[in-house]
Amino acid sequence: MPTLRQLTLTLLLSVLGVLTVTAQANDTTWQALEEGGLVILMRHSLAPGVGDPPGFERGRCETQRNLSEQGRAQARLAGEAFRERNIPIGAVYASRWCRALDTAELMQLGDVEPAPWLDSFFRGRGDREAITQAARERIAAWEQSGNMLLVTHQVNISALAGRGVGSGEMLVVRPATGGLEVVGRLDVRAP
């Protein structure tokens, strides 16, 4: 029977193996971004809670769920990671929700354009099909040498790519016949 020490060592080696795979996946994704022409689907940084409080009004941040200090730090850290690697950003679009706009602004990767086609449709706040279709059309039309950064919400990313992401996490995609090809996932959040 294995000792507690042997079990602990085995668990530690397993965790380190996962971290190595994640780091390698991030490296491959960063390299693809250096070449440009891709789309980054980013979930806004950490804004504790779910949905928005009663009395929500778009354009009035005090009525919304907003970034925490940790979320603000996540956004700044993500922007630093892009700048350190000289990742070309050709355009930055964000949902009109304050937490998405704030994330994009704090990243400091270019002028941020509010985009209704990135707005959340969680709990019936918008037309899921229309918003998703408009986002797909924008993504399919991206043919710039730089990358396009889209800061949006979990529900939007799941509808577009069929995968979820954590707060501040990103999926890097390219348009493909019949949908999107996921190039990789980026997680530059502070531990």
From TrEMBL:
Coiled coil: none annotated. The keyword Signal applies. Residues 1-25 form the signal peptide. Keywords: Signal. Gene3D superfamilies: Phosphoglycerate mutase-like. Pfam families: His_Phos_1 (PF00300). This is Phosphohistidine phosphatase SixA. It comes from Vreelandella subterranea. The lineage of its organism: Bacteria, Pseudomonadati, Pseudomonadota, Gammaproteobacteria, Oceanospirillales.
